[in-house]
Specification:
The protein is an alpha+beta fold. It has 14 helices and eight strands. Strands 1, 4, 5, 6 and 7 form a five-stranded mixed beta sheet that branches. The chain has a three-stranded antiparallel beta sheet with strand order 3-2-8, with no helix packed on it.
């Protein structure tokens, strides 16, 4: 029996990601939760994080592990190990599948899922129903995480959106928490840096003014960042800001960096999407950037990612509307 992991990935709207198999291979055109087989010497947690990065180019935070599901497909017996995960990425890069959809959880019953995934979906929906009546406040133990050792441990073992939102609330009362989150974002420990920057993004979602004074540092670090996960969190923060108050120097740094990301074949889809949004905002300040942005987006249309193509079309329409409005 083969061990296989899968991820129930939730976005900011609590929708769940499903992907569709292609014509070739087993179970053509069936939908499933993304994931894959365990490699020798690999933990199941390492496996699902690796598989989601390889298959979808997405960063995930594991929130919890669900009960395994065993299923016999006749010529293939599997033990499917599901994880509930959160992600800030909305645009997967499909390297093995032909389509993706974000679904409200009840709609999982409406699509043609693989048999084992149907059981996983049923378990997940039952958990949601049970959880609805429970209080999900952070435990007293975690609420004491104000000293650096506890804070570092909490961030490094972040268990999802609820804890990140609690830290965001705590940062309002304790500026040291925000300072440490920013410091950890530059850590050589890639896991800690990713989760700290991910949490910073959640802080910005709830309290954007808290990040304002650190925006110059965040922008200045973009070109030297080696951690792609941190870069996408930082670009996400910047893409949601009003860029008008920034200096011309900062505008120049952003334009140069974001065009570089758009033109690089190595950039993740989320990084391209956030870069596109940032340059669009800069083009509203500097109209001369509009033509270069349009040309770059048109070049990306042959890239093969349906998500980035759709985002590009939206940006082009918005640009055209602004041009007509002037």
């Amino acid at each position: 029996m083969k061990d296989v992991t899968c991820a129930i990935i939730r976005n900011e709207e609590n929708q769940v990601l499903v992907v569709q198999r292609g014509e070739k291979g087993g179970h053509p055109f069936k939908w499933e939760f993304p994931g894959g087989k365990l490699k020798e010497g690999e933990s199941v947690e390492e496996c699902i994080i690796r598989e989601i990065r390889e298959e979808l180019g997405m960063d995930i935070v594991i929130c919890r592990r669900m009960a395994a599901v065993e299923h016999d497909y006749g010529n293939n017996q599997i033990r499917l190990i599901p994880f509930v995960c959160d992600s800030l990425d909305e645009l997967p890069f499909l390297s093995e599948h032909i389509a993706f959809r974000w679904l409200d959880p009840p709609d999982l019953k409406m699509i043609d899922l693989l048999e084992a995934d149907i059981i996983v979906a049923d378990h997940f929906l039952a958990e949601i129903k049970t959880d609805a009546g429970h209080d999900h406040s952070v435990s007293d133990t975690r609420q004491k995480a104000y000293n650096e050792e506890d804070l570092r441990s909490m961030v490094g073992n972040m268990m999802g959106r609820k804890e990140a939102e609690w830290l965001a609330d705590s940062a309002v009362e304790n500026a040291e928490i925000l300072r440490k989150l920013l410091e950890y974002s530059f850590s050589k420990d890639k896991k800690l840096a990713f989760r700290a920057s991910w949490t910073l993004s959640k802080v910005h979602d709830k309290y954007p003014d808290l990040i304002g004074s650190d925006l110059q540092l965040i922008i200045g670090s973009l070109d030297s960042l080696e951690n792609e996960s941190v870069q996408r969190s930082f670009l996400r923060i910047i893409s949601m800001r009003d860029l008008n108050p920034l200096s011309q120097k900062q505008h120049g740094i952003l334009a140069g960096h974001c065009f570089k990301m758009l033109n690089s074949c190595l950039s993740a889809i989320a990084i391209k999407a956030y870069s596109m949004e940032i340059i669009y905002k800069l083009a509203l300040i500097y109209p001369e950037l509009a033509n270069e942005l349009s040309s770059t987006i048109n070049m990306l249309q042959g890239e093969g990612s349906a998500g980035i193509q759709a985002r590009g079309h939206i940006i082009l329409k918005r640009l055209a509307g602004k041009v007509k409005g002037r």
